[in-house]
Design goal:
Its EC number is 1.2.1.58. Helices cover 16% and strands 26% of the residues. It has 131 residues and is an alpha+beta fold. The chain has one domain: Alpha-Beta Plaits, CATH 3.30.70.20. The strands form four sheets. The chain has a two-stranded antiparallel sheet with strand order 1-8. A two-stranded antiparallel sheet has the order 2-3. Strands 4-5 form a two-stranded antiparallel ribbon.
């Protein structure tokens, strides 16, 4: 499967990736409803950090209601009907790549659709084949 990877040194912080993602996931232009997040580094170390799921699957075992699973294509997904909104997976995620929004019961995470990659004007994010 292909996963989203990043080159933070190329990121300008424009947010095009977050808008594209929120359009795919929730049909709105709202960066807070995006599964990819760009955050400016504080202090002297200028630039941006890019947070996006690498589909490692470590969150699957932490979900007590078995709402998180690996799809046939290899992407780690959340079954919204099973999710109880405890957000244990959000706190557990080693990549800090699962997000919460007050209007959405289940955590927001990447589904590996590639919309963010197509929207990125600098090539700061890209798709890479993963075993």
């Amino acid at each position: 499967m292909k996963i989203v990877k990043s080159r933070p040194d190329l990121c300008t912080g424009c947010g095009a990736c977050m808008i594209a993602c929120s359009k795919v996931l929730y049909k709105v232009e709202d960066p807070d409803k995006s599964a990819i997040r760009i955050k400016e580094r504080p202090g002297a170390e200028s630039g941006y950090d890019i947070f996006v799921c690498n589909h490692c699957g470590k969150c699957i075992s932490i979900c007590s209601v078995e709402a998180i699973y690996k799809a046939k294509n290899g992407a780690v997904r959340i079954d919204a009907e099973k999710c109880v909104g405890c957000y244990m997976c959000v706190g557990f995620c080693p990549e800090q790549a699962m997000f919460v929004h007050k209007d959405i019961n289940e955590p927001i995470k990447c589904i590996a659709c590639g919309a963010c990659v197509r929207a990125c004007p600098t090539g700061a994010i890209y798709l890479e084949e993963q075993d």
